[in-house]
Design brief:
Length: about 90
């Protein structure tokens, strides 16, 4: 029987994303950023950390569409800072 439950699986998943992001995975950084953007049971909503994850993803691959989309969304909605329409359009 599996011992540990869904919380352990989720924590292991986040640890794996974090590890993969250390090795230059734009996809893992973007998924981690989404977790911070939306907030989950185990990770609180943190717009600054989400922003950092998406920006790091674009340093790895400036054309990565998901990271560009979420940075555009953050700037469009002014999450964590004021609305920055020009920056939003640049990312979109």
């Amino acid at each position: 029987m599996f011992d540990g439950g869904i919380d352990k699986i989720y924590n292991d998943y986040i640890d794996l994303l974090d590890l993969k992001s250390d090795y230059g995975s734009a996809e893992s950084l973007t998924i981690l950023g989404i977790q911070y953007l939306h907030g989950t049971k185990n990770i609180g909503r943190n717009f600054q950390k989400a922003l950092e994850c998406f920006e790091r993803a674009l340093k790895i691959d400036k054309e990565y569409s998901d990271a560009n989309y979420y940075l555009g969304l953050i700037n469009l909605l002014g999450l964590g800072s004021g609305i920055q329409m020009k920056k939003a359009l640049d990312y979109f």
